[in-house]
Amino acid sequence: MKIPFSRSLSLLLLVVIFLTTSGAAHAEKMTDATSPSSSAVPSLGTEPANPTCHFSVGTALGVNGYDIQSLGVGSYLDWGRYRSISVPASINYNRVLRLSDAEFTNTLNGLDALIPSNKGVVWIIGNEPDSEVTYQDHVSAQVYAERYYAIATRIRLLDSTAKLGFGAVIEPTAIRMHYLSLALDRLTQLAGSKPAALALIDVYTIHAFILNEQPIYDPATGKNVSWGAGVPIGYDANTWPAPYVIDLGNGEVTKVHDITIFENRIVAFRQWMQSLGDQNKPLWVTEYGVLFPSVDIGFEIISEADTIAFMEASFDYMLGTKDPNLGYSLDQNRLVQQWVWYSLNDYLTHFGGSLYNPLNHQMTDLGKHFMNYNPSEAAVPMVNPDMYVVGGGLTATPIYHDPVSGQFGYQITVRVGNKISSDRLTNATVDLYDGTQLIGTAPVQIARCAGTGVAIFTVKGTAGNQYTFKSHVSVVSGNGTDVDPSNNDLTYPPVTLSNAYFQYVPLSMHK
Fold first, then answer.
1. How far is it, in rounded angstroms, from Cα 88 to Cα 67?
2. Is pLDDT of 373 > 70?
């Protein structure tokens, strides 16, 4: 329940200062796949393109144990450079190269070993270089350009097919675009000409939070004096544009999830790209969301309903807004080509926007809205699917015992997918057979972005008996026409049903 702002201002200010100076949006994310010594592999080879999928997610606490293939994303990002082996190869991985004083030398020196096994991928060079806090990249515009140039030219030498991402500022405000203009001036000097500098940029990347822009620290004492994005190194109030200020005391907290502000900033950044003569390139929003917690921590700052409304409105805008003068021609002139929601799984009491509660891996209401979001056909026309049954995607788990018949109740799950990448969900049905006998039919929603979904059946069976299950997936009318029905059936290897009800042990079947 919300409480009156006047009664909670001092506590709110303390919480917000903590949120924006010690956590995920403004700290390097530590995941299960950020170093070669982790349980990750350097590469899965040249990754498949998902040109018709715009959805991505940032994984604050790693991806192990999360079924992101059913979430509906074409890629994920963890602010590192080594993808997790727990993620299917069909989901791209967005790599980030860090440029802070503490990390730049290791980043540059590691490229010779890293690039040959990761050819043809996108490298986002830098993470919030404009940040005032030192645990982000925290460099001046000129230093960002110098370090970007060193890394970009080295990558180009090692892999001519690589794509380079420039920017990654916290929010696309006037101050941040001025910062990037200064960086491009220096990049032009280093490259020898403006065309040569722009040739080192394949993708423009920004974060798109809506945060306060005032100095976070008192330089004399080093103590917090404000909250939000702070100001970049080199900021000069006399020559730089005016900062964007959110006055919490006047109840302006709603600005941090104001869709009109979000939309105007995207347009402004595209106009800035146009001023460079470089607007016909992809723009990725590589981190955005609503950072204020939506759970009860003594009071409620922003409701989860507010965050849901903002998220869905942002999806509507980025999928549906097209401009032949500002947009990217290879993406139907959309303004934004990929967006990374923050986050998959940050702690609910630290930040808003989490799709899962990391303490129990349960999906939040926000996560359900993310997974179930489906754009209008005006924004994303229907795309014919290619449905298939996932090999090894059946499990039979005992869930109850009938003492009268001696039979067990089993939950049978069947995983099916769509091989065609699209921003739209696909509704289907699955028929489950025991041999030639139909057991039942269950609905299933197939995730966006060549994702998967699970059909669930509850059946009785005799423990110890062997069964031969078969499944068939069919597209529901109104969801397009299956382009290849030959992969819609799968007969699984024979399975003996378990009686381990009291142990809750699932039996998995692999092809």
1. 10
2. yes
